[in-house]
Design goal:
Blueprint (H helix, E strand, L loop, with lengths): L1 E6 L5 H9 L3 E6 L4 E2 L6 E2 L2 H8 L4 E2 L8 H5 L5 E5 L7 H4 L6 E5 L7 E2 L2 H7 L4 E8 L9 E8 L6 H19 L17 E2 L15 H10 L6 E5 L2 E10 L10 E2 L4 E3 L4 E9 L5 E2 H6 L6 E2 L2
Parallel strand pairs: 1-2, 1-6, 2-5, 6-7, 8-11
Antiparallel strand pairs: 3-4, 7-9, 9-10, 12-13, 13-16, 14-18, 15-16, 16-17
Helix pairs in contact: 1-6, 5-7
Length: about 300
């Protein structure tokens, strides 16, 4: 098939490469403009732009997606594929393609429509999630669905690890289903929708009043971004890995004991990997070894 590909971050690269390697003709790649990664740094291309350039594909980086509508229309492509593009695409773009735009969405729609479906599924304690191929319409992730694949969420899996699996699952599903899309009508979404709002730093603060099982999900959902955190003796410390102590244990409320155990509203959360402010990630035991032996105040 002749395709226009829309995508920006690392998550979109496997789908682009899979389509190219499978022999699909990619007429155009549309991605976000080059951006500075730091205040003093030079503008850098998106991961999709780098990958497309290495593959010798034509790339456009419009400031606004509507700027490429005419070029999409004249590309000769029959369908557009969207993977984490980062901008809402206007009707002028998906109307320019005979079979519209097919979006790879990282949830089992209509659950977790929106910006952060992977993290929201983990925070909510969902036992499974998945990937859906859907036709883009005017609403936010409201379009009808061509196909979905589900996968369990691992009990110790981080959001980054889960996302990596979903990225691969999405690329495989796309290769399997895309050739048949021109002859199919997608199925309207059914069920009560939920919305995956953008993540905020504050909601990843570890509050000892909450149950340990919830805080474990906060830690896993915040890895690698934005990172769970807590204040220890006035110092902000990120928590990258933790686990719930099976026995429940005993330790003082609002204190981190010498074994990195934190009493919570229900159960004990044991910190495994932390990152004190201005330092590199390290084991919680290594961090505590450099502190005094008394329990540390959390709050």
């Amino acid at each position: 098939m002749r395709i226009v590909f829309f995508g920006t971050p690392d998550d979109a690269v496997p789908a682009l490469c899979a389509l190219h390697d499978a022999g699909h003709e990619i007429a155009l790649v549309v991605t976000q403009p080059d951006r500075r990664r730091s205040r003093r740094g030079e503008p850098e291309p998106s991961p999709v732009k780098r990958a497309a350039t290495e593959l010798g594909l034509p790339v456009r980086t419009p400031a606004k997606s509507r700027e490429v509508a005419d070029e999409v229309a004249s590309s000769g492509a029959t369908v557009g594929v969207v993977v984490a593009f980062g901008q809402l695409l206007p009707a002028s773009v998906f109307d320019a393609l005979p079979f519209g735009l097919v979006n790879v969405h990282f949830s089992l729609l209509p659950r977790w429509r929106g910006a952060a479906p992977v993290e929201r599924a983990m925070l909510a304690g969902d036992e499974q999630t998945g990937v859906c191929l859907m036709r883009i319409e005017a609403g936010l992730d409201t379009g009808p669905v061509f196909a979905c694949r589900s996968t369990p969420i691992g009990a110790e899996e981080t959001a980054g690890e889960l996302r990596a699996r979903l990225v691969d699952l999405g690329a495989a599903l796309l290769l399997q289903e895309l050739p048949g899309i021109p002859g199919r009508e997608p199925v309207p979404q059914s069920g009560e929708p939920t919305y995956a709002e953008k993540l905020t730093v504050d909601e990843f603060r570890i509050d000892p009043a909450r149950p340990a099982a919830e805080l474990d999900r906060v830690v896993r959902a915040g890895n690698p971004r934005p990172g769970a955190w807590l204040m220890v003796d006035g110092e902000r410390v990120k928590v990258w890995r933790a686990h719930v102590e099976p026995s429940g244990g005993t330790t003082s409320p609002d204190a981190l004991d010498t074994h990195a155990r934190l009493a919570t509203g229900s159960g004990v959360l044991v910190l495994d990997e932390v990152q004190p402010q201005g330092r590199r990630p390290m084991s919680a035991q290594a961090w505590l070894a450099g502190r005094r032996g008394a329990p540390l105040r959390v709050g």
